[in-house]
Amino acid sequence: MKHTWIKKALWGLLLLVPFLLAVWALCETTGSDSYNYQGYITAIRKADGGTVITTVSGDQTAEFTIKGYTREKFNGDLTQLEEGAFIRLSTTRNSSTNVKKFSAYSGFSMEGKIVFMEGLSSPFILTIDKSLNYYMLYSLISSQDIQYPLQNGSQVKVYYQYPLNASTKTIVVDVIEPTSDLLDEITEKEIAYIGRQGYTVASK
Prior knowledge:
This protein has a six-stranded mixed β-sheet with strand order 10-8-7-6-9-11, covered by helices on one side. A hairpin with a 6-residue loop joins strand 4 (86-91) and strand 5. By secondary structure, the chain is of the alpha+beta class. The chain starts with a helix and ends in an 8-residue tail after the last helix. It is 18% helix and 45% strand. Residues 16-31 have low confidence and may be disordered. The chain contains two helices and eleven strands.
């Protein structure tokens, strides 16, 4: 009788194992593409508890810790976390900073000065293509409803998700980050270049 009970228990356990594995797999995969935060990495440092990343999203900065148990996913050519990378992440249930999982992508950014044009409400960024040593001008559209305190000559760094090509005239940006409190006045040479692109610098 005792052996019969043990056999039944073993058979029951064997039948239960595939069910438990299926439940575990479902829990691991359910919502695997769902994250509760996204932003761009601006700094990385090692700490006792793991790797701490500083991120910027919109006009807010935050810090998160990559732990030994963090599930990592890299996309495209990205193979490790680096400054400028775009990251989506979720934190653990018991912590708002410890990262449960993340998915990271190559991010893009550029620095320049803000220029407003007559008759247009959206700001432009005037930058220099370092490879060509030539001015480039792009209209900026914010992906978030944030009113950045910008004016002509504001020095900024913008972050965006997709690479530019020769035909790009407008950039959808996730972040417009000031790099200085000082204004970089628009020069006569820059005004002449902007005029050749068909725009007139606004007086404000």
